[in-house]
Specification:
Single_hybrid_motif, OB fold (Dihydrolipoamide Acetyltransferase, E2P), 7-stranded antiparallel beta sheet, 161 residues, Biotin_lipoyl, Acetyl-CoA carboxylase biotin carboxyl carrier protein subunit, mainly beta
Length: 161
């Protein structure tokens, strides 16, 4: 199965590619951060000017024009679908199941204080254990699922006070 990526250019243009699509790109690396690419019989010179691996944002210069590019993989897209994202994550008041799966463990209790990035739940999905982290500092208001529950995508799991 091919991995999917979402590219956003200058915050406006958005398109999807798979790793299969990426492997078909005719690009030759000419130096550490420079590439020569052929696309539809046109030549492009690209340079990766700036990278931020934490936010997955890149500044890329193509034929002298600069572009801000953000690349999201499948996990990034699932996290965004849950409502978690840089900047807006502090406003998250609930955690919902990002995909169908089995709730293996709950690491918190009602009225417990948690810090951002504390482990809250472990969800088994597609034969993988996914640790769900707290999106913000806060207090657990309610837990609406139990250990061992089969979960549906979008099912409410935890609410913050």
């Amino acid at each position: 199965m091919s991995k999917k990526y979402k590219f956003r250019v200058n915050g406006a243009l958005e398109f999807d590619l798979t790793d299969e699509d990426v492997s078909k790109i005719d690009a030759l690396q000419t130096s550490e951060n420079r590439y020569h690419t052929l696309l539809e019989e046109k030549s492009y010179h690209a340079e990766i000017v700036e990278t931020n691996f934490n936010t997955k944002k890149y500044t890329v210069k193509v034929n002298g024009n600069s572009y801000q590019v953000t690349i999201a993989n499948e996990l990034d897209m699932q996290i965004a679908a849950m409502g978690f994202s840089v900047g807006s994550s502090k406003q998250v008041n609930a955690i919902k199941a990002p995909m169908p799966g089995l709730l293996l463990d709950i690491h918190v209790e009602v009225d417990q204080e948690v810090k951002e990035n504390d482990p809250i739940l472990i969800l088994e999905a597609m034969k993988m254990e996914n640790v769900i982290l707290s999106p913000r500092d806060g207090v657990i208001k309610s837990i609406t699922a139990s250990k061992g529950d089969a979960l549906d995508k979008g099912q409410m799991l935890i609410e913050f006070a």
